[in-house]
Design goal:
CATH architecture of the largest domain in chain A: Orthogonal Bundle
Distance between the termini of chain B: 74 Å
CATH class of the largest domain in chain A: Mainly Alpha
Largest sheet of chain B: 5 strands, antiparallel
Strand content of chain B: 15-25%
Radius of gyration of chain B: 32 Å
Number of strands of chain A: 6
Strand order of the largest sheet of chain A: 1-2-3
Largest sheet of chain A: 3 strands, antiparallel
Number of domains of chain A: 2
CATH topology of the largest domain in chain A: Cytochrome Bc1 Complex, Chain D, domain 2
Order of helices and strands of chain A: HEEEEHHHHHHEHHHHEH
Number of strands of chain B: 18
CATH superfamily of the largest domain in chain A: Cytochrome c-like domain
Distance between the termini of chain A: 43 Å
Radius of gyration of chain A: 37 Å
Shape of chain B: elongated
Number of helices of chain B: 17
Largest interface: A-B, 47 and 45 residues
Number of helices of chain A: 12
Number of domains of chain B: 2
Oligomer: heterodimer
Strand content of chain A: 5-15%
């Protein structure tokens, strides 16, 4: 929290300015009220001694009747004065120097509310955090909590249904870049991922060579390809691409290199898109949620994501006894 | 604050003349303060043995409004409180209906109806609301009834208040305030019972376990009732309520008002029984001052229409009683209109002036809004759907080259029973639902439902295409909602 008093754009003058205006206003109102409550004015009375008008006449015939406010009304004004004084004693209303007897701040109130919420919801999160993710995923309420966290934090890229989008992986198809085991999901969410495919056009060769490698990549997943070109691209793939994607093209979860033998594509599986990928490379970033979500929250959202592709496997049985 | 120009609305011409004459006759000046001490008013509640006709009407409305107010929260409907405004859950149960914050438009309509009714009744009958139905009047009436039964009527109360404190006086005052507080607390309790289930609240209060906000509001409304009906009374009407101040804008010469027939009554005087009043050059007003004694706001109706007059007609009943005893015809003080007094026409003539443009306009708008509300409530579909298109993912290509868009439906089942719902999507050829096409939703619950729609790319023009997503109850064909949204195609 910045101390505004230390700001170079702020001088102590304003503290006094605000304090003096506030105090003078409150005291001024009180004095004015006191004077008015004692003030007398002249009034006209009739022959019977009844007070009729204040004696003010405008435009020759417009008279002002005397209709005084009841005396208790003035006490309402005194109460507002008393309220202001009490308020200024309790709360920081007189510049930044006076903190108020209650020491109240907006930040303090917010933190207090967070504390209250933590006390209320903490045990619920803690109970789930103590269970293995497979078991949490079997709990309908936990999945709902996880979904809520997912919608607020993950849906922007992965979509509300976690089916992803061009460049953002589908989390519900059971196909994983870095692996889909519960602990791997937690690692991914906590630390984030940065998947880099460098531009390989120059390394592969000219336009014709890139086209041949692209056709070979298509052939790996039995997608429509030119078998002659594919056969010619095989050698390049096995010397250059295989470093990350493996000689068989099945990828490498350790570095997030995609499996090219299935029909799951991150950017699209047409020949043109694959050529574009080889030439330009790709750079994928999944940010770290370490500072955004708490550990128990990551645990819950990981359970939710895991449940999307393991709906049949979520264990509803009692947690296994801890081995150690 | 000081020198506020106070114009008394619609003071009869005679009064203004009398005042001017008096001012002219004795232009004497005195020094006065800007604030005046409140003068205690001791309204006399009984004149004669039985209540006058308008006092009977007042008691009838007191009974009617209070039976409804104290009774309604105890009614049950389908195993729950029939009328419950559950602020914490934001659900408002009104017999067979559950309203949600999204239904706030009905409240708007009800408020418009209330305002227009006030305008209409005021234009026709003057301050009927103040005199017969306003809680301030009703609770003051109840509290004054208690007061009369403990301390006695006007004369005895005035005498008691002048006495020095004694055991008897203390006992009477304690009994009165005790009874007032009991009624006030019961009122506060009932009020809170509209917002928190009253049967559970009863158990809590009985066990002294009620706490927090329930207790606070019971005491708050209890204190407000005790203070307003016991202590403040006419001060609320005279100084706090805005209605008195703008009554002149809603009155016209054909509005029924409680009024004194100056021509018939003046010159007023007690007179002697030795000769007829006509021979003594006296009008019908016998100067008994009962009309002043019974007035709950302490005014003299013979001064003409004043903003303090709440239209309770207590003076009419008192005057009629006296006129009857004195062998004169009733109605020296009566419900009449300014124009009727001026042009001397009878009750039938007043009826003839009821239908005037202002009344017709108010009635027309009131009828239109009432019918609109009734139709809207009757045709209300207990299902609300909000379609939120996924913003992050525009359109995606999926298996077989299909284009997919994702939507999140926020669905509220505002009926009280659980139902199964089916989703439909129309607007593009071959549009199909790739996600689960049906879902269940418990009664009075809300949930979000993911919907994935797919279409073949050749069927979708690039860019934004208008489609309609429908949600329909599978149990009740009448419960269906359609929402417009868009389906994005891929660039070709």
């Amino acid at each position: 929290m910045n101390d505004i008093g230390a700001s170079q754009f702020y001088s102590a003058f304003w503290d006094y300015y605000i304090a003096i205006i506030s105090i003078v206003s409150v005291v001024g109102c009180a004095v004015f009220l006191w004077l008015q409550s004692r003030r007398t004015v002249k009034a006209q009375v009739n022959a019977r001694g009844e007070i009729l008008t204040t004696g003010h006449v405008w435009d020759g015939d417009l008279q002002e009747y005397h209709n005084p406010m009841p005396r208790w009304w003035i006490w309402l004004f005194y109460i507002t004065v008393l309220f202001s004084i009490l308020y200024l004693i309790l709360y920081p209303g007189l510049g930044t120097q006076w903190k108020g007897v209650l020491n109240w701040t907006q930040v303090g109130q917010y933190q207090g509310e967070v504390k209250t919420a933590d006390a209320k919801f903490g045990p619920i999160f803690a109970a789930y955090a103590a269970q293995p993710i497979e078991q949490v995923a079997g709990d309908a309420r936990a999945r709902q909590m996880g979904e809520r966290i997912f919608l607020n934090n993950c849906a922007q890229c992965h979509g509300s249904d976690a089916h992803g989008s061009r460049g953002f992986p589908n989390l519900s198809d059971g196909d994983w870049l870095y692996g889909g085991a519960p602990d791997v999901l937690v690692t991914t969410i906590t630390g984030g991922r940065n998947g880099v495919m460098p531009p390989m056009g120059a390394a592969v060769g000219g336009k014709a060579e890139v086209d041949e490698v692209a056709n070979y990549v298509l052939s790996l997943s039995d997608s429509a390809n030119d078998s002659v070109k594919a056969a010619r691209g095989r050698a390049k793939f096995e010397t250059i691409c295989a470093a990350c994607h493996g000689a068989d093209g099945k990828g490498n979860p350790a570095i997030g290199a995609p499996n090219l033998t299935d029909k799951v594509w991150l950017y699209g599986g047409s020949s043109a898109t694959i050529t574009e990928t080889i030439n330009g490379g790709r750079n994928n970033v999944m940010p770290s949620f370490k500072n955004i979500l708490t550990g128990p929250e990551i645990h819950l959202v990981a359970a939710y994501v895991w449940s999307l592709s393991n709906s049949g496997k979520a264990s509803t049985a009692a947690p296994p006894a801890p081995t150690k | 604050m000081d020198n506020a120009v106070e114009t008394k609305p619609l003071v009869s011409p005679g009064v203004a003349e009398a005042r001017s004459a008096a001012v002219g006759a004795a232009p004497r000046e005195v020094e006065i303060q800007l604030y005046a001490r409140r003068e205690e008013i001791y309204p006399r509640q009984r004149v004669g043995d039985s209540l006058g006709i308008f006092q009977k009407w007042r008691w009838a409305t007191v009974w009617a409004t209070q039976i409804v107010f104290y009774g309604l929260p105890w009614l049950q409907w389908n195993g729950r409180q029939a009328l419950l405004f559950d602020l914490a859950a934001r659900k408002f149960y009104i017999f067979g209906m559950v309203l949600w914050p999204q239904d706030i438009i009905y409240l708007t309509a009800i408020l418009i109806i209330a305002a227009l009714s006030l305008f209409l009744f005021t234009a026709i009958g003057g301050r009927l609301w103040c005199g017969y139905a306003c809680p301030q009047t009703v609770y003051t009436e109840i509290f004054m009834w208690i007061e009369r039964h403990i301390e006695g009527d006007r004369a005895r109360r005035m005498k008691l208040d002048k006495e020095p404190m004694s055991f008897r006086k203390f006992a009477l005052k304690a009994a009165k305030h005790g009874a007032w507080i009991a009624v006030a607390l019961w009122t506060g309790f009932t009020f809170v019972g509209y917002f928190t289930p009253i049967r559970e609240l009863t158990v809590e209060v009985a066990a002294f376990a009620a706490g927090g906000w329930s207790l606070f509001w019971i005491l708050f409304y209890g204190l407000a009732t005790y203070g307003n009906a016991g202590w403040m009374r006419e001060q609320v009407c005279k100084y706090m309520c805005p209605y008195a101040r703008f009554q002149s804008a809603m009155f016209d010469p054909d509005t029924l008002i409680v009024t004194y027939d100056r021509e018939r009554g003046e010159p007023r005087g007690v007179g002697s029984k030795k000769s007829s009043r006509a021979e003594q050059n006296l009008g019908d007003c016998v100067e008994c001052k009962l009309c002043v004694q019974v007035c709950p706001t302490g005014i003299d109706i013979r001064d003409g229409l004043q903003y303090e007059c709440i239209g309770c007609a207590a003076c009419i009943d008192a005057c009629d009683h006296v006129m009857e005893k004195a062998g004169m015809s009733k109605g020296l003080i009566r419900y009449s209109t300014e124009r009727a007094l001026e042009q001397h026409y009878a009750a039938t003539g007043i009826w003839g002036h009821v239908l005037r443009p202002r009344v017709l306009v108010y009635s027309g708008i009131l009828a239109a809004v009432t019918v609109a509300l009734a139709v809207a409530v009757a045709m209300r579909v207990p299902l609300k759907v909000d379609v939120i298109r996924d913003r992050g993912a525009l359109a995606r290509e999926v298996e077989d080259g299909l284009v997919e868009n994702t939507y999140r439906l926020q669905v509220m089942n505002t009926a009280e029973r659980g139902q199964a719902f089916g989703i439909s999507a129309t607007g593009l050829p071959g549009l199909e639902i790739a996600s689960e096409p049906t879902f269940d939703l418990p009664g009075a619950a809300t949930r979000s439902v993911m919907v994935r729609l797919r279409a073949r790319p050749e069927d979708i023009p690039p860019g934004s295409n208008k489609i309609v997503i429908g949600v329909k109850s599978l149990d009740d064909a009448g419960v269906a909602v359609e929402e417009k949204t868009v389906f994005l195609g891929l660039k070709r």
